Amino acid sequence: MAELSFISKLTWPEGRLGPGVVETGGQSLQFSVPASMGGVGEGTSPEELLLSAVGSCYTATLAGLTEARRLPAASIRVRVEGTVSDYPGPAARISAITVNPTFVGIKSGREKEYEGAAMTARERCFIGKHLGPEVSYGVGEVEFAEQTPSAGEVLDVRALPAPRRHELIFRTLDGLAGGAAITLVNDHDPKPLHYQLEATRPGDFSWDYVERGPEAWRVRIARIA
After folding, report:
1. Sign of the alpha-carbon dihedral angle for 129, 132, 133, 137
2. Which end of the chain is more exposed for a tag (fewer CB within 10 A), N or C?
3. What is 45-145's CATH number, 3.40.630.30, 3.40.50.300, 3.40.50.150, 3.30.300.20?
4. Cβ atoms of residues 42 and 66 within 8 Å
5. pTM as predicted
6. pLDDT tens column, 48-76
7. Which fold would CATH assign to domain 154-223?
8. CB 158 within 8 A of CB 194
């Protein structure tokens, strides 16, 4: 088996407060003792770097699992939470790390499979395996979110159940900045949506057909600046 090497370079000025600099992967990050621990709180912190190491390994492992199991997702977001116990004092330690994954734009009906992958990734993430037995390392809440396009992107709602279409469309439109636009794709003429827009948000959006069926209707909807 191969043996791989990795290097990080760190620089710290004289004194306890810092901040210092860590150079890794061709990037430089400032770090210091957190303000909650009496430091200057500039940049990231050793505690956050540890959470990032565990979280990045978990996220990459989870991405590989979903691909291997043919579980499509537009993206995976992971929030990592850490707890420091018995601070201050010599017994202070990281006592718990929890990863909370969110799958964006999944294949509906397979939620249990995504949840299973989330649990398996925790067991296979080798960085997490190096945490001592005194650290509680687990998977928290597994969540699912619909993919919301940014300005200029296509919002294809054809695969969604009818009740969820308008909810997603209005949430997306309300998030657009002035002058920004999306292209809505539907399997029928979304004229009722147009009427609803005019009734609830009069004068806020323009409406221009790009394609009028028979298989797809495409409408460019822009927020009027």
Report:
1. negative
2. N
3. 3.30.300.20
4. no
5. 0.69
6. 999 999 999 999 999 999 999 999 888 89
7. Translation Initiation Factor IF3 (3.30.110)
8. no
